[in-house]
Request: fold
Amino acid sequence: MKVLVSGEVHVDYGQVFVESGGDEHDLHDAFTGQDGVGLCGGGTDGALLLLTGLRIGGVGFTVELHDSRPELDETWEEIVEIPFRPVSDETKLRQWDGKSSWELGLEERDYRVRYSATAMDAGNGRNVREDDEPPTDDRYLLQFWPAPSEPARLLKQTSVVAGNWHRFATSPVG
Reply:
């Protein structure tokens, strides 16, 4: 396992992105074809839209690359998996405002992505975190591993915030 990003990532509108080959992200398009799997939208080729509980500010965020499917850690409160394939040789995690990004070094191949979260409702209740305030309780883990494409799956959901996003993903247009 290789840790690609570890630390605080700033979110705006509760969003952070993975992108390769472009920076266009549409909230509705992101969940196309995911049949009720929210939080991590992969409906746009070469892009992921990742949602957080906190609307504005820094959250704990880790990105990992594995050689094979990692063990499922049930201590996370929210867990989804979706397929992802970079469309260029440069893939990065990018903050909403574009001020910071992290190169992920992914190959142009099929990956499985697991996005896990904890304390999303607490982050949502706080809403905004200023830079000089203590960290929020919500934190996020994004894991990649090589795997053939398979449908998106909701593995665990406990929060109201995640439930709302899963309902949105059931019918993202409208």
In short: The first helix runs from residue 27 to 30. The chain has one domain: 2-170. The two ends are 40 Å apart (CA to CA).
